[in-house]
Amino acid sequence: MAHILNFDLIVLTPCLIVHTLMLFMISVSIDSENHYQ
């Protein structure tokens, strides 16, 4: 059970980081678009 949990953490953590980065980039690009208007 612990091995499965470790595997999930190894797989899911990078996915979460990528997802968070994508959301961050989207919000930053929306911010910069608003500033230019």
Would you kindly provide a brief summary of this structure?
This protein is mainly α.
Question: What report would you give on this structure?
Answer:
With 37 residues, the chain is mainly alpha-helical. It has one helix and no strands. 0% of the residues are buried. The radius of gyration is 16 Å and the shape is rod-shaped.
Which keywords apply here?
single chain, mainly alpha, 1 helix, 0% strand, transmembrane, transmembrane helix, membrane
Main beta sheet strand tally, sense and closure:
none
Please report the distance between the alpha carbons of the first and last residues: 54 Å
Helix content: over 70%
User: What is the overall shape?
Assistant: rod-shaped
**What portion of the residues fall into strands of 2 or more residues?**
under 5%
